[in-house]
Amino acid sequence: MTAALSFPHAAPPAPGEFIDIAPGIKWIRMPLPFALDHINLWLIEEPASADDPRDGWTVVDTGFGVDATRALWQQHFAQTMGGKPLKRIVVTHYHPDHLGNAQWLAEHFATSQGAIIVEMSLTELLAAHSVAEGSGAYQRSNLAAFFRAHGLTEEQIDVTANRGNTYSFGVPTRPPCCNRIMPGDTVEMGGKFWSAIGGYGHTTEHLSFYCEELKVLISGDMLLPKISTNINVWPVTPLADPVTDYVSSLQAFKYCEADTLVLPSHGLPFSGIATRVQALETHHEDRMNELYGAVAESPKTAADLIPTLFRRKLDNHQLFFAIAEAVAHVNHGWRIGRLTRNVGDDGRIRFGLAA
Questions:
Q1: Could you tell me if 16 and 75 are in contact, meaning their C-beta atoms sit under 8 angstroms apart?
Q2: Where exactly are the structural domains of the chain?
Q3: Please, are residues 13 and 205 in contact by the beta-carbon 8 Å criterion?
């Protein structure tokens, strides 16, 4: 039997405060205006160097780009950071709670050489601009057509695909460029070396960071202690199988030391990587088996299967991600040959058990 997860702290830092979570790393928390009401951010002490003689900080992820978060940042500038400058901004992926304040912070701590260049995956930065601009497959009309084909009602489409560009609300300004980090790169933060680990299925090229010396993993959204990461399909890749991508990505975490401290974006820091990876693998296997049972009598759309995958009442924000996750799971069943995929005369895509 695998060991249970271990949590070194029973509670998170209060708003505007911090916890010293690992040598040279401070844990701060910012609010989110959703059912998932928080995100964890990580401040890493940066010593002076030949390139920059100032002591300062690196931040990993930046919070939702609204006034409430920025007011808390102002407190951290003076107190948590002791008036020392932010020297580097590293972002795990393009979602608003992670990228939302990146450009604002970059401009706030600009030097005579200009704004800080945000460090992240180029693929994620391009996704941020495409989503914010509503270009290509991210146009509202394309999203509405995609949701309609997978079974959402017109009323549901109105409160999801047609609700306006909410991404720009959380990311009002976006970095025009980035210092590109690629999976497999070694990144120096706080005088330590961190391996960039690529993650797929949640976003296009999520980055987690592992420091073998400290035995610390900044996991972003790829490895959370209590909830499963949203895995999704969007119109830009309508036939994708992100379930396979995500589960395959988890395998890299098995190479971290067993007693590694995981710093997740949501929930409490924990130890027990192997236990959590196994639980997530089992979770998706169980969901697929339930899905197969749900289509045993007759083919169903992804929307029909949302109650099978999510056993709770969903608000409009949650429904938006639930339909994308339902498509991810039916696509997975279809791609591995367990489900059939057929487009009906009504234009709806239905999935049934393969013979």
A1: yes
A2: 19-273
A3: no
Which DSSP category does 193 fall into? E
Q: Let me know the angle formed at the C-alpha of 38 by 32 and 41, rounded to the nearest 5 degrees.
A: 110
pLDDT of residue 136: 87
Cα(197)–Cα(168) distance, integer angstroms: 27
Separation CA 242–CA 233 (nearest Å) = 7
Cβ neighbours around 283 below 10 Å, total: 13
Per-residue pLDDT tens digits for 114-156: 899 999 999 999 999 999 999 888 899 999 999 999 999 999 9
The number of beta carbons lying within 10 Å of the beta carbon of residue 244 is: 18
DSSP 24: T
Residue range 223-264, pLDDT digits in tens: 999 999 999 999 999 999 999 999 999 999 999 999 999 999
Q: In whole angstroms, what is the distance from residue 231 CA to residue 322 CA?
A: 9
Q: What pTM does this model have?
A: 0.96
List, as own/partner pairs, every contact residues 193-196 make where C-beta atoms lie below 8 angstroms and the sequence separation is at least 24, other chains included: 194/218
Q: Is the dihedral of CA 138, 40, 171, 253 positive or negative?
A: negative
The pLDDT assigned to 3 comes to 64
The answer, yes or no, to whether residue 74 has pLDDT greater than 70, is: yes
Model pLDDT, residue 1: 36
CA nearest neighbour of 132 among 102, 106, 88: 102
Strands 86-90 and 56-60: parallel
SS3 content of the chain, % helix, strand, coil (to 5): 35, 20, 45
Answer whether residue 54 shows pLDDT above 80: yes
Class of domain 19-273: alpha beta
Distance, first Cα to last Cα, the chain: 36
Q: What sections of the chain are H helices per DSSP?
A: 67-78, 96-99, 102-108, 122-133, 140-149, 154-158, 167-170, 242-250, 273-294, 306-309, 316-335
